Protein backbone atom coordinates (compact mmCIF):
# COMPACT_ATOMS: atom_id res chain seq x y z
CA UNK A 1 0.00 0.00 0.00
CA UNK A 2 1.38 3.38 -0.99
CA UNK A 3 1.91 5.87 1.82
CA UNK A 4 3.32 9.40 1.88
CA UNK A 5 4.83 8.85 5.34
CA UNK A 6 8.50 9.82 5.63
CA UNK A 7 8.73 8.99 9.35
CA UNK A 8 8.55 12.63 10.50
CA UNK A 9 5.42 12.40 12.60
CA UNK A 10 4.86 15.86 13.98
CA UNK A 11 1.80 17.99 13.30
CA UNK A 12 1.96 21.73 12.62
CA UNK A 13 -0.48 23.32 15.06
CA UNK A 14 -1.21 26.25 12.73
CA UNK A 15 -2.31 24.16 9.75
CA UNK A 16 -3.08 20.75 11.28
CA UNK A 17 -0.83 19.07 8.70
CA UNK A 18 2.00 16.66 9.44
CA UNK A 19 5.40 18.24 8.77
CA UNK A 20 6.57 15.06 7.05
CA UNK A 21 3.71 13.99 4.83
CA UNK A 22 1.11 16.76 4.92
CA UNK A 23 -1.78 14.60 6.12
CA UNK A 24 -4.09 15.53 8.98
CA UNK A 25 -4.31 13.41 12.12
CA UNK A 26 -7.69 12.11 10.94
CA UNK A 27 -6.26 11.11 7.55
CA UNK A 28 -3.30 9.38 9.16
CA UNK A 29 -5.63 7.44 11.46
CA UNK A 30 -7.99 6.45 8.66
CA UNK A 31 -5.31 5.68 6.04
CA UNK A 32 -5.57 1.89 6.24
CA UNK A 33 -9.36 1.95 5.96
CA UNK A 34 -9.48 4.39 3.02
CA UNK A 35 -10.17 3.15 -0.48
CA UNK A 36 -7.36 3.46 -3.03
CA UNK A 37 -9.28 6.34 -4.67
CA UNK A 38 -9.55 8.18 -1.34
CA UNK A 39 -5.82 7.73 -0.68
CA UNK A 40 -4.96 9.02 -4.18
CA UNK A 41 -7.15 12.09 -3.64
CA UNK A 42 -5.37 12.88 -0.36
CA UNK A 43 -1.96 12.31 -1.95
CA UNK A 44 -2.75 14.75 -4.76
CA UNK A 45 -3.45 17.47 -2.18
CA UNK A 46 -0.24 16.92 -0.18
CA UNK A 47 2.28 19.02 -2.16
CA UNK A 48 0.10 22.14 -1.86
CA UNK A 49 -0.45 21.48 1.84
CA UNK A 50 3.26 21.09 2.54
CA UNK A 51 3.86 24.46 0.90
CA UNK A 52 1.61 26.08 3.54
CA UNK A 53 3.69 24.85 6.47
CA UNK A 54 6.04 27.63 7.58
CA UNK A 55 8.27 25.84 10.07
CA UNK A 56 9.98 22.73 8.83
CA UNK A 57 11.26 20.08 11.24
CA UNK A 58 14.91 20.52 12.18
CA UNK A 59 15.77 16.91 12.81
CA UNK A 60 16.97 14.51 10.17
CA UNK A 61 14.39 11.92 9.20
CA UNK A 62 15.11 8.25 9.67
CA UNK A 63 14.73 7.70 5.93
CA UNK A 64 17.23 10.50 5.15
CA UNK A 65 19.69 9.16 7.72
CA UNK A 66 19.52 5.63 6.30
CA UNK A 67 20.02 6.94 2.77
CA UNK A 68 23.02 9.02 3.91
CA UNK A 69 24.52 5.99 5.69
CA UNK A 70 24.02 3.77 2.64
CA UNK A 71 25.61 6.38 0.38
CA UNK A 72 28.60 6.59 2.73
CA UNK A 73 29.12 2.82 2.66
CA UNK A 74 28.79 2.65 -1.13
CA UNK A 75 31.28 5.40 -1.86
Query: How does the major sheet shape up?
Result: none
Unreliable spans: none
> Given the helix and strand composition, which structural class is it?
mainly alpha
Instruction: Domain count, please report it.
Output: 1
Q: What is the overall pLDDT average?
A: 89
Radius of gyration: 14 Å
Termini separation:
32 Å
The share of residues in helices is: 40-55%
Tally the helices.
3
Order of helices and strands: HHH
The total of beta strands comes to 0
Q: Kindly estimate the percentage of residues that lie in beta strands according to DSSP.
A: under 5%
Protein name: DUF1289 domain-containing protein
Region (Disordered): 53-75
Biased composition (Basic and acidic residues): 66-75
Pfam family, one: DUF1289
Q: Could you please describe the fold and organization of this structure?
A:
Residues 66-75 have a biased composition (Basic and acidic residues). InterPro entries: DUF1289. It comes from Chelativorans salis. Residues 53-75 are annotated as: Disordered. This is DUF1289 domain-containing protein. There is one protein chain. By secondary structure, the chain is mainly α. It has one domain (1-75). The chain has three helices and no strands. It is globular, with a radius of gyration of 14 Å. The N and C termini lie far apart (32 Å). The model has no long low-confidence stretch (mean pLDDT 89).
Task: Give a quick set of tags describing it.
single chain, 75 residues
Amino acid sequence: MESPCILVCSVDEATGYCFGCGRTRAEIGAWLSMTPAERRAVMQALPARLDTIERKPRRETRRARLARERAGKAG
